[in-house]
Amino acid sequence: MTLLQGALILGAGLIAGAMNAVAGGGTLITFPTLIWTGLTAINANATNTVALVPGALAGAWGYRRELREGNSQYYWLLIPSFIGGLIGGILLRYTPPATFAALVPWLILFAVVLFACQEPIQRWLRKGKPIVPVHETSQHWLLLASSTQFFTGIYGGYFGAGMGIMMLATLSVLGFSSIHQMNGLKNLLGMAINLIAALYFIFVDLVHWPEALVMAVGAIVGGYGGAGLARKLGPKFVRWAVIVIGVGMAISLLLK
């Protein structure tokens, strides 16, 4: 990693940390940046996942009160999250590099679409009537919830961008009505997916540590110090900036 590459990665981490504090979507900045600095698509994805772990842990800790107030049965969803995240990581490792590189622009565009739908989905979450009342945490409910979380975990371990909004939507369908409780569970389950995938990527030596550490530092500093600027710009501005940048990055990778 050259000094210029390190500066680009640090800058991407700073921007992504500030964006994640307000509107999310930081992966749409950090992942393509790692590719542009010379990492293969698979190594960039693995490195990005490891760099996200500190932020994921902090996010889960930040919602600890909402998690304590929830039903203890919800913690069973950690099991399909871990299993799905591990399977997603294994699938990534054994995907031919050329195939994954060809998929990357389309995965980014898919994540951009999910991110663009975040606001209308959240409005629907606030207004919609739960399909399954959340207090009915029967075996049927747990099986349905575990199945959806398992497939979300596979996507999260394999690529991950847009995973949060996928979980918010499925949690609403499963009967949750409190957006704060959903955010808490989303952060906890997302942390589990990222953590198990990151440990697997470390074990199979897919991670470029200098880039991961620089990006993690940038994301932490950006999340703490850059959130004020991002809030001044407003979540709507930040959201549209992420969408435009994400589309631009996907197009540039398609043309690369």
Q: How would you portray this structure in words?
A:
With 256 residues, the protein is mainly alpha-helical. The two termini are 21 Å apart. Helix 1 packs across helix 11 (209-225), helix 7 packs parallel to helix 9 (163-173) and helix 8 crosses helix 10. The protein has helices at 3-22, 27-36, 41-62, 64-69, 78-94, 97-116, 118-127, 139-158, 163-173, 179-203, 209-225, 227-233, 235-255. The protein is built from 13 helices and no strands. The longest helix has 25 residues, at 179-203. The model has no long low-confidence stretch (mean pLDDT 82). It has one domain (3-255).
What is the count of β-strands? 0
Q: How many H/I helices? A: 13
Structural class: mainly alpha
Order of helices and strands: HHHHHHHHHHHHH
Question: How many domains is the backbone divided into?
Answer: 1
Largest sheet entry: none
The helix fraction, in percent, is over 70%
Distance between the termini: 21 Å
Inertia-based shape = globular
Mean pLDDT: 82
Please tell me how large the radius of gyration is.
18 Å
Low-confidence stretches: none
What percent strand?
A: under 5%
